[in-house]
Amino acid sequence: MLFWIIAAVLTLGASLAVLLPLTRQTRARDDASHDLEVYRDQLGEVDRDAARGLIAAADAEQARAEIARRIIRLDAENAREPKKASQLGPRLVGMIAVLAVPLLSWGVYTAIGSPTVPSQPLSARLSQKPADSSVDELIARAEAHLVANPSDGRGWDVLAPVYLRIGRANDAVTAYRNAIRILGSTTARQAGLGEAIAASAGGIVTSDARIAFEAALKLEPTDAKARYFLALALAQEGKISDAAAAWRLLAASLPADSPWRAATEQAIAQAEVRTAPVKEAAGAPAPSQDDIDAAASMSSSDRTAMIEGMVATLDEKLRQNPRDPEGWVRLVRSYQVLGKTDLAQDALGRAYAALGRDSEDGRKLTELAGSLGLDVTE
């Protein structure tokens, strides 16, 4: 109801601001007509006083002349504004239009608008059930709560990964730090902090991020996220072989359904391209720095094609010289990383035939195949 009262007052004020100038000229003409009637009455009075002898004839003549001058002056002023009378029509149209605009707008809004829907201020929306709220409203609700309760570590702990997921990396760093300060360190908080710091730095594992990941590993040495990013830090420092070795160890320890398996296997494949271990295993000369740089700058499709060519070369080499345990390990893993499970399974069978399933090399292959999700019973 308050809205309608305010709207009515504002509409009335705006309409009067436009209407008042349109009425001024009409009032001016009415004033001129009134003055003319007054002058005529004055002339009649002078004539009556002269007839009764109340004033001298000379004074009466002088009074008539003065009143006549005023009438002439008034007529002259009206004559200088001949167009004003013709402007009555446009002014009338303008007045009607000014009055029609608010009436029409209110009528249209009442017909197609929603005047009965109550307003929904932020406080009211934040107080509704979480299931009925959007993600932004839930975040706003959590932020409002934390402004009023900055020592609520649980709130910071819940909000931090949400910030990271929606791309607000700097806010995620702050939330993780507050959660650690209030609730203490856990593997998930330290690893999340490291990931948030890296995300805020454009994907670079900085020294602060490394410290957070190392703190996570002290609490849980098998944490996949911390191990993955610490290997990434080695790759960013140019230690591609060390990074590849760390990723291989991580891949061997990950369960088949781990969310980090795909990222780790992709990282291994890219590291192997940059160091060209398949070329060396196939007896090809070691790549030059230009070859490594070129491979690193390739598109994803070109890099995949290059890997497939190198894997095919290794496969041919192992057909000619099957007594190469490391070559079989690379071949099985490479086929699986490329998504060619049938070829990986076939390579595993040929490796068993060449090395023996029960030999030490065969047992290593069985362990690798199990980590890659291959069938070791065939």
From TrEMBL:
It is found in: Cell envelope. SUPFAM superfamilies: TPR-like. One of its GO terms (biological process) is cytochrome complex assembly. Coiled coil: none annotated. Residues 143-259 form the Cytochrome c-type biogenesis protein H TPR domain. Keywords: Cytochrome c-type biogenesis, Repeat, TPR repeat. It holds the Pfam family TPR_CcmH_CycH. GO terms for cellular component: cell envelope; plasma membrane. InterPro entries: C-type_cytochrome_biogenesis, Cyt_c_biogenesis_CcmI, TPR-like_helical_dom_sf, TPR_CcmH_CycH. The keyword Secreted does not apply. This is Cytochrome C.
